């Protein structure tokens, strides 16, 4: 199979690219940095630049007869109070987490329609299901990607193209080094520092990226997909159904305790 994965310079993306490359698939990693690997080919690409995206797909199709799988993994985090976030920071986040992923889908869909097959996995977050304290815009950007995924599933189904979102919990990566961190104003500093410290501790104690690769491998073996899949530790996954069934105020109080805000 021909697999395209974005955000392959580090973390989950690099692990996925190596994992599927070792299994004998033709894997192309799209990231801004060139990465040396014996198991996949890097095409340096800024996915927020649509001309670079189109050029990368054209280059792949010079060598490959099909595009079987796209994994939209590239993304970034953002922390800080909603009030303190600037327009520039918000736009930078949405441009990568939402627009970049949409541009990637739009670039591969003509080929997938022609071959009447294809699978697209949009990497989302369990945090997209709720507004997380001091991560409001990150939650919003991933939630937007979720809804776009739900819409496009209807639109591409006549060509037997399947699309889903994979909501991840905390994964042990260097995401903290690449987050957008807003300037935190005085009223929020004390609470933010407590939440931020806990946030980083959860990442350090997160699931290994190799486990994500194994889960996606199992997912690709399924004949048909649901719109949403959730992967992570039980304590994080349980937050999703609780959000659906509990009264909002009660749920918010649980979230405050989980984030040590009380």
From TrEMBL:
The keyword Nucleotide-binding does not apply. It holds the Pfam family adh_short. The keyword Ubl conjugation does not apply. Its EC number is 1.1.-.-. SUPFAM superfamilies: NAD(P)-binding Rossmann-fold domains (SSF51735). Keywords: Oxidoreductase. One of its GO terms (molecular function) is oxidoreductase activity. PANTHER family: SHORT CHAIN DEHYDROGENASE (PTHR43976), SHORT-CHAIN DEHYDROGENASE_REDUCTASE FAMILY PROTEIN (PTHR43976:SF16). Belongs to the short-chain dehydrogenases/reductases (SDR) family. This is SDR family oxidoreductase. It comes from Kaistella montana.
